[in-house]
Design goal:
The complex is a heterodimer.
Chain A lengths: L3 H26 L3 H21 L3 H19 L7 H22 L7 H6 L7 H30 L1 H6 L4 H23 L4 H12 L6 H26 L3 H23 L5
Helix pairs in contact in A: 1-6, 1-8, 1-9, 1-10, 2-3, 2-4, 2-8, 2-9, 3-8, 6-8, 9-10, 9-11, 10-11
Chain B lengths: L11 H5 L4 E12 L2 E12 L3 E5 L6 H8 L7 E6 L5 E4 L13 H7 L10 H8 L15 H13 L5 E5 L7 H18 L2 E5 L5 E2 L5 E6 L1 E6 L1 H5 L2 H13 L2 E2 L6 E3 L5 E3 L15
Parallel strand pairs in B: 3-7, 3-9, 5-6, 6-7, 8-11
Antiparallel strand pairs in B: 1-2, 1-4, 9-10, 12-13
Classes of the chains: A mainly alpha, B alpha/beta.
Chain lengths: 267, 280
């Protein structure tokens, strides 16, 4: 008989993976891995803000994500600091500010490690409800804008000429990303969230011929990683979140090697 | 189906210019910072007409096409498009990254939201450009010529009244270039669409071109291919030697090229389907 806490972890993790897979494909296609990492690190500041004004951290994370997205967009035009440097500054400033802000809140007892590395073995059924509600909303929104988002990812100029509203789509994509970061935080923590977005997507690439196949495969790889990681965590008493990421990386390495071997035709 | 944004200003003369007029640009000036990319440019494209843009690098050819596509705002002047005009646009140097898996079929169904690609239109469009056998290929595996055909098929799915082709021959090998120009001419005849195309080469325009517009920020000269070739501004811009080498692409009757690329008198001065060129 499977322990209930493990079942909860599995249900929560699979729920997050099912959403992170398709969304992660866009992060990979749009080359936004570092942008995702910046949002995730900055999310800790969002958590602190949420606790400070007494609302659910999800809203704080949404606020910090929008703030970071606006700063990145606003500063992209200047040329004296490169984009990677800018993202690095924002990511680490957000993380550091979050840590400092949390230290000031003496009244609140929080488990910092749970935010940084996740605490999937401690998820409650209420958390799971949130993950599945948020996840369903994210998948519905993604399905709605799927074709337009693919079009602007392929060629923004062409999409614009054909009447696709580029800016609202980019904004919607960032908001969706923020929601996924918020719901994935419980499972792997802010430091490892991006791995759940990009590693399954990268593992799916060699075996996909269309964007939709890649999205579905990425969700499956993510779910397998969660199951394997949780099993390993139980077996060898390793931390659950990092074990999930290690499992995903192992699947990616296998896929990449296999894909390279048989993939001369798709290479 | 999304249409391009409405006209910026509608000059009253535009309607008087004929029911076939698709686009009319008047005195169009586009400035990027201090420099003028386009300086008081006039251009008209009507249905069934092929207009070729030539000019040196950085002359503003792409800027003009992008302005017609509704992607750039004019600093001055007017741009009129027939209300509800459907444009099929093929941008320059479009490349699709390998990070996204994509078959030709999916690329084309993406251009046709709603149908899901089950109505046979994708297959029909590919047949029109002689690329039906490419449908399950990954777009990243296509040659330059194959990719341009697929992009043309994609544009056709939108049932365009105006095709905007920015250097459609770029990355296409020589044999493919000829076939591609033939194809564009054929599509124009079959659908009666207007075509505005940027030539990748200063000295070559396609045989079926009705009008050549030579652009160097301003319109140096325009007219039938043969008249542009002898226009003083064209000669001044490219030099007499280059000017003599302007040739309709498929049927250069007045000269051929030797192995070094120098023009030599053609052995066969006859022409099956058009007047002989001016002797040079």
């Amino acid at each position: 008989m499977i322990e209930e806490f493990l079942l909860r972890a599995l249900v929560a993790g699979v729920g997050v993976a099912a959403v992170a897979g398709p969304l992660g494909c866009f992060v990979v296609w749009r080359r936004m891995a570092y942008f995702g990492a910046t949002l995730a690190h900055g999310a800790l500041l969002g958590v602190a803000l949420g606790l400070l004004i007494g609302v659910d951290p999800v809203f704080g994370i949404a606020a910090s994500s929008v703030l970071i997205a606006l700063i990145v967009t606003g500063l992209q035009r200047q040329r004296t600091i490169g984009g990677d440097t800018l993202l690095g500054i924002l990511a680490h400033a957000g993380l550091a500010l979050g840590l400092v802000a949390l230290a000031f809140m003496s009244g609140v007892r929080i488990d910092l490690m749970a935010y940084l590395f996740g605490d999937v073995l401690a998820v409650t059924w209420i958390d799971i409800l949130w993950i599945y509600l948020g996840g369903t909303a994210v998948l519905a929104a993604l399905a709605l804008i799927w074709n337009s988002l693919l079009a602007i990812t392929l060629n923004e100029e062409l999409a614009r000429a054909e009447g696709v509203a580029v800016v609202p789509l980019q904004l919607a994509f960032m908001l969706i990303l923020a929601v996924v970061i918020a719901i994935a935080m419980k499972v792997v923590g802010v430091l490892l969230i991006v791995s759940l977005l990009i590693i399954p997507a990268a593992a799916a690439r060699p075996f996909a011929r269309t964007p939709e196949q890649m999205a579905a495969l990425a969700a499956i790889v993510g779910a397998l990683s969660v199951a394997a990681g949780l099993f390993a965590s139980l077996q060898w008493d390793t931390p659950a979140g990092p074990s999930i990421v290690v499992a995903a990386t192992a699947i990616f390495a296998t896929s990449f090697t296999l894909g390279g071997a048989l993939g001369k035709r798709t290479a | 189906m999304p249409t391009v944004p409405g006209p910026l200003v509608m000059p009253p003369e535009a309607q008087a210019a004929g029911p076939d007029l698709l686009v009319e640009v008047k005195n169009l000036t586009v400035r990027f910072g201090q420099t003028s990319a386009l300086d008081r440019v006039d251009l008209k494209v009507s249905g069934g007409e092929i207009v070729s843009l030539i000019g040196p690098n950085g002359a503003g050819k792409t800027t003009l096409v992008r302005a017609v596509a509704g992607l750039i705002e004019a600093s001055a002047g007017t741009l009129w498009r027939r209300p509800g005009l459907r444009i099929g646009y093929v941008p320059q140097r479009l490349s699709i990254d390998r990070v996204m898996p994509l078959t030709v079929r999916r690329l084309l169904t993406l251009a046709q939201p709603g149908s899901g690609g089950r109505d046979g239109k994708v297959e029909a469009a590919l047949r029109e450009v002689d690329a039906a056998d490419l449908i399950e290929h990954a777009v990243q595996d296509l040659s330059g010529g194959e990719f341009q055909r697929v992009m043309l098929a994609r544009a056709l799915l939108r049932r365009p009244q105006l095709l905007l082709l920015d250097e459609p021959l770029q990355g296409v090998d020589l044999g493919g270039q000829l076939a591609l120009y033939d194809l564009i001419g054929r599509l124009r005849r079959r659908h009666g669409m207007g075509v505005l195309l940027v030539s990748h080469d200063l000295h070559i325009v396609m045989a079926a071109t009705d009008r050549v517009v030579c652009l160097n920020h301003h319109v140096c000269c325009s007219g039938a291919p043969e008249s542009v070739q002898h226009h003083p501004e064209y000669v001044a811009l490219f030099g007499a030697e280059a000017a003599r080498r302007l040739a309709v692409y498929a049927h250069a009757h007045d000269h051929a090229h030797d192995l070094a690329g120098n023009p030599v008198p053609a052995a066969d001065a006859g022409g099956a389907d058009r007047e002989p060129e001016h002797p040079s």
